[in-house]
Amino acid sequence: MARRGQTHADILIGLTQSAELFHAPDGTGFADLSINSHRETWPVRTKVFRRWLARRFFEETRGAPSSEALQSTLNVIEARAHFDAPERAVYVRVGGRDDRLYLDLSDDSWRAVEIDSKGWRVIENPPVRFRRSAGMKALPTPLTGGSVRVLRSFRTSTLYRPRRGIVRRLSTGDPERHRGHCDAARLGRPRLVPDVRADPRGATSNGGGTLGGI
């Protein structure tokens, strides 16, 4: 409960103690928030974080914070995230850590698919941090079984060769092994690498555009 004599800014700063702050390599301040029993990661300078903070203030005081207090609090939080909190990599859709890949499903529960040499599994609260960009759509929850052959429906070429496949590999960031396949590999960023071949007679596959939306 708020104490008598506290300013709105004091209350707001106190409420942020439940958020885990950090900053990205470029200095952007982030906060891990516990929402509906799962973790969400948002930049401090976003509407989502402002709304979370305003909601927490209302839950505590049954009132609304002043705009000046809210802005002052955001300035303090951003400074704390930059100077007093650890640095962490932040990924969009695909990230990697400890020889594992993580695919953000972008669903409401912020789940991810963990992929390693033993297989894959859907997990909650992945060890890597993801950020959500505007317009990012949720991916279907993967199921066991099935075959990559279903991706044939995305091709237009009649010269498709099953042995080559459409999705060739999950790149682990080895620039020599994946030379020419993916700029992200040379940057050390794990990602899906579509290996879609064009029809020598001039027809092209639309699989690249489809997979590019993943």
Give an overview in words.
The chain is 23% helix and 23% strand. By secondary structure, it is of the alpha+beta class. The chain has three domains: 8-83, no CATH class; 89-140, no CATH class; 146-214, no CATH class. The protein has a four-stranded antiparallel beta sheet with strand order 5-6-7-8, with no helix packed on it. A three-stranded antiparallel beta sheet has the order 1-2-3. Strand 7 (112-116) and strand 8 form a beta hairpin. Helix 1 packs across helix 3 (67-83). The longest helix is centred in the middle third of the chain and has 17 residues, at 67-83. It is elongated. Residues 163-199 and 201-205 have low confidence and may be disordered.
What features would you highlight for this structure?
214 residues, alpha+beta, 3 domains, 23% helix, elongated
Question: How are the SSEs ordered, and which strands pair?
Answer:
Elements: H1 8-15, E1 20-23, E2 29-35, E3 38-43, H2 47-61, H3 67-83, E4 90-91, E5 94-97, E6 100-104, E7 112-116, E8 119-123, E9 129-130, E10 167-171, H4 183-186, E11 191-194, H5 207-212
Quick overview of this protein structure:
The protein has 214 residues and is of the alpha+beta class. Helix content is 23%, strand content 23%.
Supply the number of structural domains: 3
- In spatial order, strands of the major sheet run 5-6-7-8
Number of helices: 5
Based on secondary structure, the structural category is alpha+beta
Fraction of helical residues: 10-25%
Which percent range describes the beta-strand content?
15-25%
Average the pLDDT over all residues and give the rounded result: 80
Distance between the termini: 45 Å
Q: Over the alpha carbons, how many angstroms does the gyration radius reach?
A: 22 Å
Low-confidence stretches: 163-199, 201-205
3D shape: elongated
Instruction: Give a count of the beta strands, DSSP E runs of length 2 or more.
Output: 11
Helices and strands, in order, run as: HEEEHHEEEEEEEHEH
Main beta sheet:
4 strands, antiparallel
